[in-house]
From TrEMBL:
Stretches assigned to the Cytidyltransferase-like domain: 11-222
Catalytic activity: nicotinate beta-D-ribonucleotide + ATP + H(+) = deamido-NAD(+) + diphosphate
Gene3D superfamilies registered for this protein in UniProt: HUPs
Organism: Glaciecola siphonariae
Protein name listed in UniProt: Probable nicotinate-nucleotide adenylyltransferase
Name of the gene this protein is made from: nadD
Length: 254
């Protein structure tokens, strides 16, 4: 039987339609802040909570340019290779089989996290992984609750039942204590959180405060449909791939 401390692997899933710098820059900052050495980019095949406009093969290829940009990243086709809805519980169960001595850190945005109670087998997810929630500075109400009297207190832990801005259905799933780290946080505090994640295989929740990156996949698709320049939103290789394959030329959907 494996004993802690466990190794850590982060996974970052989504439709990535297309993958853009608003995905990449906060992700790299998170890996730096929590000293995470490995992260799988996991494009969904048949997403449950939103639709895609672009074939999975194109989205997988574009995500591959993220892996070329940083050696800590790799693309995982674990969801695309299955012709079924991309339920996170299935993905995490498969990863547990292939990485038995590893704590999986599931990275997601705040909006997705707030809706987590509605996900398939949501009560099981907290027994499969840790959650790292990327929060922007503009998420001020919850950020103020988390930080309280100061960042240092929040890094030690916040009682999840005290957070009024979380849905009751989500609070019922949370551990008693959740944690906060930030790009400007002290190294010792962030290393303490790294140790907490290594000490168990699942169940911890960490909020990561990062700077706002004013870009979304919807914005990129609309800009492409209008014929606007999108190079400041994308890696050059992704922009070139989109142009080469004439993706997103029709009217974009939200």
């Amino acid at each position: 039987m494996s004993l802690p401390p466990y190794s850590l692997k982060a996974i970052f899933g989504g439709t990535f339609d297309p993958p853009h710098l608003g995905h990449l820059r906060p992700l790299l900052s998170l890996l730096d802040t929590l000293n995470l050495d490995h992260c799988d980019i996991v494009p969904s095949h048949i997403p449950v909570h939103k639709q895609t406009q672009t074939a999975a093969a194109h989205r997988l290829k574009m995500c591959g340019y993220f892996a070329q940009a940083d050696s800590r990243l790799q693309v995982n086709d674990i969801e695309i290779k299955h012709d079924r809805p991309s339920f996170s519980s299935n993905t995490l169960a498969e990863l547990a089989q292939t990485h038995p001595n590893t704590s999986i850190c599931f990275i997601l945005g705040l909006d997705a996290f707030l809706g987590l109670a509605s996900w398939h087998k949501s009560e099981v997810l907290f027994k499969q992984c840790h959650f790292i929630v990327m929060m922007r500075d503009e998420d001020s109400d919850l950020a103020n609750e988390l930080t309280g009297d100061g960042y240092s207190d929040a890094s030690i832990g916040v009682n999840s039942s005290s957070l009024r801005y979380l849905p009751a259905s989500l609070q019922a799933l949370l551990p008693e204590t959740i944690y906060l780290c930030a790009e400007q946080g002290q190294k010792a505090q962030n290393q303490h959180i790294n140790g907490i994640l290594r000490a168990s295989k699942h169940g911890e929740v960490v909020f990561f405060m990062n700077k706002v990156h004013e870009v979304s996949s919807t914005q990129v698709r609309h800009a492409l449909a209008r014929g606007d320049s999108i190079k400041h939103y994308l890696l050059p290789e992704v922009a070139d791939y989109i142009q080469e394959h004439s993706i997103y030329k029709t009217k974009a959907e939200d």
